[in-house]
Design goal:
There is one protein chain. By secondary structure, this protein is an all-alpha fold. Helices cover 64% and strands 3% of the residues. The protein contains 20 helices and three strands. It has helices at residues 5-37, 44-63, 65-75, 81-97, 102-125, 128-149, 155-163, 169-192, 208-222, 257-275, 291-306, 310-323, 331-339, 356-372, 380-392, 418-437, 441-446, 451-460, 470-478, 485-498; strands at 231-233, 239-242, 245-250. A three-stranded mixed beta sheet has the order 1-3-2.
Length: 501
Amino acid sequence: MAQSTTETDTYERFAEKVRRIENLSAGGSMLRWDQEVKMPDDGIRARSQQLSTLSAVIHEEFTDEEMGEYLDELDAADLDDERAAMVREIRRQYERKTRVPTELVEEISRATSEALPKWKEAKAEDDFSIFAPVLEELIDLQKEYAAHVDPDADPYAVLFAEYEPYLDLETAEEMLARLREELVPLIDAVADSEAEVATDAFSGEFDPATQEELARDALDALGYNWDRGRLDTAPHPFSIGNQFDARVTTRFDESDLLGGLTSTIHEFGHATYTLGLPDEHYGTPLGDARDLTVHESQSRLWENHVGRSRAFWEHFLPRVEKRFPQVDASVEEAYEAANQVHDDNLIRVEADELTYHMHIVLRFEIERELIEGDLAVEEIPETWNEKMEEYLGIRPDTDSEGCLQDIHWSHGSFGYFPTYSLGSVLAAQLYANAEDEIDDLDGRIREGEFDPLREWLTENVHRHGARYTTPDLIEEATGEAFTADYFLEYVKEKYGDLYDL
């Protein structure tokens, strides 16, 4: 497709402006990584101001008159598919951002920076009242933000679109409703099963420093690029970065060997997606990930379809036994322990593949009510506990094990949680297609050959960046529309086999 010199010049100036904004954003991400991983506690006094100022600069740069002029010119230009995709993505963000005052952006950034240490303190002290005032402020700010973006829309739908702009909230609600409808009977059947599933293959105490060595073993085996990444610990595991610097964090509990290992593999999934983005498009949407449903599909795929598979444990159990000689389990026992369905699991990030989604439904319902004004902040602990009892049959004894367990609300992230379940559903759809196209994928994993799967994902998902919308990317990768069929078939077969259903 031929393009005029004027159009090309305009696009190049536009692309340079976008890259400048992306570099500012990337700098902010590294400041946030430092805040959660390395920064001394008193550093928050300066860090909140630094991030607030940086957020304002980015917002002003993104919404200035020059950006609007570039977009208007390029909307009328005859662009190739890649350039048109880049304009589409920036136009979508520009239209949202221009409706929001810079002062509000600064205020949200400041509030989230100051909320993080309050959340940490509240969790450590098991005292929700420490966090409640800042949480209430964040909710008010997010409601104000949503009202600016679209005063006529459901405010929660506006916030959900921050994380998943191309799958609407109705799709998420329908997917969550189907999961609840079909998983609850399966969870009940598992609870009633008399099958003897190994649960103590990894019981005992495990030195956190040695657990970190094991986590590094896992990252080595999976093919993590240490030249472009690093492993650290954080109160709530996360991955952050870009295709040149994708960092992983995890956490270790001396009584829970599997928790540290599976969270590391989960974050590896995020990082390997980031590292698979095209180098040449760094700093533009073509070099950015395609939002959170796709991002979560990568982490859930590696954590569950790989890290909890029999084939993986055939390969990796000897490494566990080398680091921890006290582990004396067969591959089958390790597999069963890694996949047991807990009847008393309070913590989302430690949940099995079935009950995990009830954790998501609970959070989704609570934050919808918070944003809609139907639930007061001070009512969160009791509402949380009641829903835990209703959906999971267990009631937390402490707020630290209940409504304070997740970091997301301290980030001001409302509308984020549904993408975890959407990502799990997509993971199964992608993995089923990978199995069809990779010869003996199970056998390759058993032999520790993870490159074919990683390369398949890079070819079909990662390298596209944000060129396609989420539905189009799913269609491109799998040849089908987004569906929960693969996930439900996968869990029913897997847990039916495990629990003799």
